[in-house]
Amino acid sequence: MPSLQPSSLPDFLYGTAWKEDRTPALTELALRVGFRGIDTANQRRHYFEAGVGQGLAAAYRAGVVTRSDVFLQTKFTYQPGQDHRLPYDPTASLSDQVAESMASSLEHLVTDHVDSYVLHGPASGYGWTDADSEVWEAMIKERDAGRTRLLGVSNVSLSQLEQMAARHPEAPAFVQNRCYTRLGWDRDVRRFCGERKIRYQGFSLLTANKEVLRHPLVTGLAAQANATAAQIVFSFARAVGMLPLTGTSNADHMKQDLASIGLALPAEAVEAIESLAG
Ligand SMILES: NC(=O)c1ccc[n+]([C@@H]2O[C@H](COP(=O)([O-])OP(=O)(O)OC[C@H]3O[C@@H](n4cnc5c(N)ncnc54)[C@H](OP(=O)(O)O)[C@@H]3O)[C@@H](O)[C@H]2O)c1
């Protein structure tokens, strides 16, 4: 049986998308710098999950961390989100695709369980479909079999979450969404999550909000705190309850991103940043 000892939730997730051949070295570097949460997906089009496994193995060998120190998160991705390098037989049922994708993830990540397994996105941009229900039930089976501790959904709207809640008694532990300032930093979805003790994971906090990084409010706060605008954004994200992701490939940025954990913003600053969208 896999160990289900709860590795505590990390303060930050290191995102491994779009790193291709650099994935093993960057994963190992992120662990050496101090990240203890790793986000990946069994979607070769955007992620090199086996490379994440190589980076983890190198960090284990070097004694940087052990498996139980690391919060490992991966995802199930429907065929339309994949290229030809599929981790499952596309003619199999969706339930079987989930099981095959999970087995392949565990092989890539050289482990007997992950800490979080996330539906990369619903089958349709509109609504929660029967396909999503079948996949979610299959993910619950994976969790019940001990192959993941927790479950999540990604790229979801408030209405999809409401429809999901109407069909399934069990709520996800995580929602992972791209977090745009212009949408009130995904305010409606964050409120839904807050009411149900679902942890909101925000990604592309920097790349989706370039104007915020240049905004005088944020640059002023950064100057006052002797910090960078990126650190202010990550500190804000944490202050409003998010578990942020960073996708940096730069060692200094990795250190700065982690250092934002120690940066406490005054309540007025948090409120002002939250209301930047109007
Ligand atoms: N669920 C999904 O569908 C989904 C979709 C997209 C992403 N994600 C996850 O979220 C992760 C992060 O996404 P992302 O790459 O869009 O996020 P991001 O962290 O907003 O963007 C990364 C960019 O920000 C820069 N950056 C990071 N830290 C910085 C700092 N301290 N100062 C200045 N620039 C900094 C990086 O440049 P440098 O490399 O030069 O630092 C890089 O260009 C992905 O790797 C993936 O794991 C999930």
Structure description:
The protein has 278 residues and is an alpha/beta fold. The chain has helices at 23-33, 49-61, 94-108, 130-144, 158-167, 187-195, 210-214, 216-225, 229-239, 251-259, 267-274; strands spanning 13-15, 37-39, 71-76, 114-119, 148-154, 174-178, 199-203, 243-246. β4 (114-119), α4 (130-144) and β5 form a beta-alpha-beta unit. α1 crosses α2 (49-61). NADP nicotinamide-adenine-dinucleotide phosphate binds at residues 15-17, 39, 120, 154-155, 176, 203-207, 228, 230, 245-250, 253, 256-257. Residues 15-17, 39, 120, 154-155, 176, 203-207, 228, 230, 245-250, 253, 256-257 line the site of NADP nicotinamide-adenine-dinucleotide phosphate.
- Biggest sheet descriptor: 8 strands, parallel, barrel
Query: What is the structural class?
Result: alpha/beta
Rounded to an integer in angstroms, the radius of gyration calculated over CA atoms is 18 Å
SSE sequence, one letter per element: EHEHEHEHEHEHEHHHEHH
Instruction: Give the strand content.
Output: 5-15%
Indicate the percent of residues in helices: 40-55%
Number of helices: 11
Low-confidence stretches: 1-7
| Bound chemical compounds | NADP nicotinamide-adenine-dinucleotide phosphate
Number of strands: 8
Rounded mean pLDDT score: 96
Order of adjacent strands in the largest pleated sheet: 1-2-3-4-5-6-7-8
**Rough shape?**
globular
Give the N-to-C terminal Cα separation.
50 Å
